[in-house]
Amino acid sequence: DIRKHLLEYDNVMNQQRTIVYDLRNKTLLSEDVSEMVLESLEGALLERVDKAVGGGQAHRDDWNLKGLADELSFVLMRPVPVAELDSPTSDALEEKVVALGEAAYRAREAEFTAPVLRDLERHLYLYTLDEHWRDHLYELDHLKGGIGLRAYGQRDPLIEYKKEAFNLFETLVGEVRDEFVQRLFRVQLAPQAV
């Protein structure tokens, strides 16, 4: 019975491992990951827009455009004036923010040249994914060590483990995306020695 439970816990970890390794292999085998980079950038920016407009529920007068402009300036490493974000609807604001992100990405591509940026993107994504995956595995081990105590609270430890492992995995994916995007706009190439 104990082995059966351990196998069920390991199955949760194996499902997550499969997803992460598929991402790694896709990144390693792909010549051009710019589409994935643009999706990551869009996701990171739209999450910030959603937070600034209160999930689409807040009235336009309650939008935190100053905070959004500061966040975008921090992520994109370029000044974003608040006036540039003035929009009649949240959809229009999202379009503006995505356009700003793409323009910043294209400027980065022009700065580094496309082949150099493709290699850099691949390297940064793999580094960020591996770093967070290692930490995630430690968190899962820690979670597995204490999850048995939930049985005292009349909860099935396996179901609790699956729920919490899923939440941790969603957090992992979001953190990898955000940190990768931030690193992409912060990295600088050292000048070559002559």
Question: What attributes characterize this protein structure?
Answer:
mainly alpha, single chain, 6 helices, 194 residues
What features would you describe in this structure?
This protein has 194 residues and is an all-alpha fold. The chain contains 6 helices and no strands. Helix 1 (2-29) packs parallel to helix 6 and helix 2 runs antiparallel to helix 4 (90-112). The longest helix is centred in the C-terminal third of the chain and has 33 residues, at 114-146. It starts with a helix and ends in an 8-residue tail after the last helix.
- How much of the sequence lies in strands comes to under 5%
Secondary structural class: mainly alpha
Main pleated sheet: none
As residue ranges, the low-confidence spans are none
Name the overall outline. flat
Secondary structure: elements and pairs:
Layout: H1 2-29, H2 34-52, H3 65-76, H4 90-112, H5 114-146, H6 157-186
Provide a brief overview of the structure:
The protein is built from 6 helices and no strands. With 194 residues, it is an all-alpha fold.
